[in-house]
Amino acid sequence: MNRIVLFGAGMVGATFADESVVREILPSKEESAWLEIDWKTGLWEARKEAAQSGKPIYLWEMDGHPLGCV
Amino acid sequence: MADRLLVFANKEVQELLKEKFVPVAADDWYQRRRKDRVGEFFAKVVAQSPRKGNHTKQGHYVFTATGKLLGFNNNRGPERRLKMMRNALTAWEELPASERTMVVPAPGKNDEGFHRELPEGGQIVKVFTRCLEEREGRLQKLSAEKIGNLSAVDHLWLRKEEIMKLEGLIESGGGEISKDLSLRIARFHLRDNTRGEPRDWKNEEVRGCSFEVDGRGNVTGSFVIESGDGKMGYQGKIEGVIAVKEGRLTKFDILVIGDHWGHSRYTGGARPGRNPMGQVFRLSEGKKDRDRIPPQAIRWAPGYWEPEK
What we know:
Chain A is α+β, with helices and mostly antiparallel strands. Chain A is 26% helix and 9% strand. Chain A has helices at residues 19-25, 43-53, and one strand at residues 57-62. Chain B has helices at residues 2-6, 11-20, 28-31, 37-46, 78-94, 97-100, 160-171, 179-189, 301-305; strands at 22-27, 59-63, 69-73, 123-135, 138-141, 152-158, 174-176, 206-214, 218-226, 233-245, 248-261, 275-284. In chain B, the strands form 2 sheets. In chain B, strands 4, 5, 6, 7, 8, 9, 10, 11 and 12 form a 9-stranded antiparallel β-sheet that branches. In chain B, strands 2-3 form a two-stranded antiparallel ribbon. Chain B is globular, with a radius of gyration of 22 Å.
């Protein structure tokens, strides 16, 4: 490993000095588009809201949380 | 991850979900095992679906608050999903009002064996991971056609006492970050989850892991993690800044750059040899439901909190 990445610059509150690699790692706007849906994570809360709002429930079920495991 | 990009980024799917449904997402590992009212309700829905009798209950379900299944599929691609959603809405509209709604009772006690919540006073750090490659003299995300080019996300949980310990360490001029927290980060968060669920690192696979914070909150460290047979590993450095005020993290910005190699059972398709991977740790306010998703590795909760044991 001979890559050297310097950031932080010794100051609390500093942003990364190498912001470019951080931007590469973080999800792009396109990758984050699915988060425009306000997903609930509790089935019971969804059930209550569905009963109150008069809508059916849409459940996305995965082994490993669909919103956060990968 | 494909669903996120192919289906749930689709404008038509989004509009339909926002307007006509209550969208919820769940980890099947917990939900299919729960022995409580939530688990019973889910089992009732599954029993009407093609997943009845299967070990896995993964898929996309549409159902009423009363538990009547209106649609199911497990296909990728927006067209088939949209078709299922529209058919389910038609079935919904044909239902008598009495079958569409009900007074939902209190959920009762959670099955603590299969339910995880952030401890009181705890905080959440999002962990983003991306496979990188060197192009034009700098590290960049993989080109679009390569497997595993998407950014993955997981969550690191810290307990209140660990945050206070960090604050004390910084105030005292700095030193080594506690073994429990360093090992938690190394074993459960320094992993390649860009192509699926990676396995946890074992204690003995963490060959070296030293993370320090100085009196100004600057974090530095390095790590070497390798499976016993040497076929999978991760070696790199971390640097960043942590700030704590009155027992609360106000900043947790960490960048990890290293070389990763190999794959585990559910993360096939790794590039051959050692290749660059990057991770960004960022403090989350935890305001949205999706921010409060348990860490993937907390299925084994005692091990997550006390990884040395």
